[in-house]
């Protein structure tokens, strides 16, 4: 009994290294297999949504989806089993995603048509960020994250500003254009305003009256102008992050105290006074 | 008589603290209630504009709007009463907004259909900026304001330039394309030109002739290129504001001369030579 | 005879000061009048292009246009007469614009319908830059000009790149989509490609086949990405111009040698060693 | 025989200088001729695709295309003959482009309709970058290349992020909107999502339901916001490249130690203390 438990423990430990780690060959192989299966599962959901393909290959697609669902179920079970703190995994973001990406298939036994919800499986694509988590890559990513994090408050103020402006101008355009031009209600007008302000411009709704077109032109120029604001925010952060980045490409380090020498033509270390050689 | 006046004075003072202040619990509660009612009133105007909903719940919506209007009227009266300089409030931006957001409902007694003007109430959403006026937030906002203020002149020149270019190219496109392609008049052509230059591109009007399409392509590339100008202006301002910002996140200050230490690994103050401690 | 000539000379001199200068009251008044008449003339051409308005007020518009044309003709004559180097003016950019903005009206005697060419009068709007030429304004404008000038070569390379990419992808899309989807010829496909690459997206032509949509998505993301290039170019120039700008807002100057003190916490002038005071 | 070989060798050497070089007059002339012929050939393919023009001038166009094809064939043969390492050329990018730009015409003998593939000839336009390869120009180009190269990893992460987001939101929109609104399948929905996220907005597919429009508005604002990310990346790189660029426009160098003097009004070299003269 004890030997069995030990075997089970060893199995759990091995599974943990394979599933969560990526240093061993098996772990790397598992990561790549998972990557492939996730891509395949997303592809399958896509193909199924194309009516012509679904009509032709319905059985093949359904069988494949079941195979993938079972694979994901086993993976989900293993992740719970081999984790020392299974609850933490279950209620983590990835844990929830992993669960709801397999649920719709089982649900389809009871609720017909619920299989369409398996599109949520696409969320598993986010795992790829983790799988492709090379050192260099992460460095870049974290720099991105830092810049975005630092400018978060400004961006929230900015989005709030856009929303208030859109509600105001949307309401005004509703009064000016009226339902005949497609501005059937204020929410629709607000939707149109966001479409215009962000320079997307579908054209499904477009102003017809002269006054409406003048205000629309004003909104466009404003939108064109304020696109500068988020760009300015993020760029300033990037430039800042870059300036403070200690891993700058190919900078000299002081041979004595390993401080990074920012100024290329320094002749003495600014930290310890050690004389520097060029090169 | 005198006691009454004092009571009234105390009431005014209390009302002032609640309405204009946000330090007391009651003041904070009032702010949040106002926030909720403003959001609700905007939502109501939106819902009323949706024909189907209005047909179903007309009485409910009208009654709710009257309740909100009365609430706003009382708030408006209180703001005038408890303010020591009521005229200053009445003719301030917010004072006018507060007034014209309650007027349309009362007007609807005399002029039927004027209730639609209560969409102007959406302007009260701007008060949210004030209500959400946390210290940190304001810091961000004022930095935004500074950057925008500093680049104001450049942006005006820029908008003027866009308008002149649009009039010129709009007139040319009117001559080339003519009314058959939707370019029914020069103002419409100018509208089209702004739609194109700002990369919105509704497609309600689009050039059909070869020459028209060539000029349109030219306008697009130009618009694509000059989008860089406002961005460049604002970004340079942001980067500048960032560099000069003394409240940079968590910078050390010299304990002796309170100079800000920009370089994180400095061991001596670059200003007074005081030895610095890490931490 | 000699007295007459002197009178004529005085008239020419006065006219010169009024027309070309803007320091005297009369000169300023002339500038503002010209500004008004130019705006009016552009407005008239616009209104005439609106069929309904033209039908109603045809006589009024034509008479007004003739009055403006005569005003412009007199102005043109005066500009030639009072200028010491009339040929230089005649063949300058503004001289040519001034001439061709009055020609179409006179031409309409001989060639009916040529009056439409008077839209070229909109070019005179460019004079407004000159008229509004306040000192502060020009400073901003010239900084804009410098930044644009410095990044000119890069922008030309960039536009050339966009054109080559558009021709290539336009040709490919023509082969893939074919005339049925609106890609009737390669030039039209190139036009579509520019419309897409610049994120304008009219939607008058849109890919229908799967392969076409994949390539279109690729073009969009590319266009979305390379919008960064002109922005990056211009922003870097702006930031540079800003850094080198000696008229930076509110910088201290050394009381001894008037050198600008860039570093706010300097205690000695970096140029002459004079001790600086704060504030 | 030997003399002939020598003559042939001289011919090869001369041809090499003319075709590959651009220092001699003949070489320059060849480059410009090639430039003209490439532009002409692209123009011809374009014109042929316009049905009306092709119907009218079919013979003229076909004959011209044959002349150009023969010109290109001779050029291709010469490039192989005079090159000392012909295989390197044949399998180089330009070698393959040169070959496949003449193949379709010869193929059209056997496979009718294959002449349309000669649009691939547009790829030869890329050669123009080489031909216009002036020193100044290249400097600019290489700075562009450096900035793009440095930000490559970040841009790949960014594009990957856009793709994942598009798949996720595309799938969700497919479930919400359904085939009735034009969201016929998940791939089509993803295509729509990219069209929206990049602010292109054709309008061939547009959300109709309220929930769909809310999500669309959210996608637009997100797209509008994240357009800042690539811009921020590239701008930071540009600003960096600019700062580190040793060939900065007209900077002084210290006559003693050749250090670049960044500060224009320095009177002493900041490196070796040499007195500087203004210049």
From TrEMBL, chains A, B, C, D:
Keywords: Ion channel, Ion transport, Membrane, Potassium, Potassium channel, Potassium transport, Transmembrane, Transmembrane helix, Transport, Voltage-gated channel
Places the protein is found: Membrane
Source species, domain of life: Bacteria
InterPro entries in UniProt: Ion_trans_dom (IPR005821), VG_K_chnl (IPR028325), Volt_channel_dom_sf (IPR027359)
Domain Ion transport intervals: 28-243
Pfam families reported in the protein's UniProt record: Ion_trans
Membrane topology: Multi-pass membrane protein
Transmembrane segments: 29-47, 59-78, 90-110, 155-176, 182-202, 214-234
Protein name: Ion transporter
Naturally occurring in which organism (per UniProt): Flavobacterium cerinum
Lineage: Bacteria, Pseudomonadati, Bacteroidota, Flavobacteriia, Flavobacteriales
């Amino acid at each position: 009994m004890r030997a069995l438990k030990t075997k089970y423990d060893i199995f759990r430990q091995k599974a943990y290294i394979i599933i969560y780690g990526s240093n061993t060959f098996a772990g790397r192989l598992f990561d790549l297999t998972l990557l492939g299966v996730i891509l395949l599962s997303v592809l399958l959901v896509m193909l199924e949504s194309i009516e012509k393909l679904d009509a032709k290959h319905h059985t093949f697609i359904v069988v494949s989806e079941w195979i993938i669902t079972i694979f994901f179920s086993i993976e989900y079970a293993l992740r719970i089993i081999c984790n020392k703190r299974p609850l933490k995994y279950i209620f983590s973001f990835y844990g929830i995603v992993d669960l709801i990406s397999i649920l719709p298939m089982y649900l389809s036994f009871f609720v017909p048509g619920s299989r369409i919800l398996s599109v949520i499986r696409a969320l598993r694509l986010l795992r790829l960020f983790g799988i492709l988590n090379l050192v260099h890559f992460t460095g870049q990513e974290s720099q991105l994250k830092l810049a975005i994090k630092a400018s978060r408050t400004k961006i929230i103020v900015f989005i709030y500003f856009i929303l208030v402006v859109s509600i105001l101008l949307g309401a005004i355009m509703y009064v000016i254009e009226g339902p005949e031009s497609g501005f059937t209600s204020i929410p629709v007008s607000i939707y149109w305003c966001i479409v215009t302000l962000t320079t997307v411009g579908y054209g499904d709704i477009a102003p017809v009256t002269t006054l409406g077109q003048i205000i629309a032109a004003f909104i466009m120029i404003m939108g064109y102008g304020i696109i500068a604001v988020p760009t300015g925010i993020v760029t300033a952060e990037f430039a800042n992050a870059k300036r403070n980045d200690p891993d700058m490409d190919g900078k000299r380090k002081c041979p004595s105290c390993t401080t990074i020498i920012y100024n290329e033509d320094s002749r003495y270390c600014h930290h310890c006074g050690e004389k520097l050689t060029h090169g």
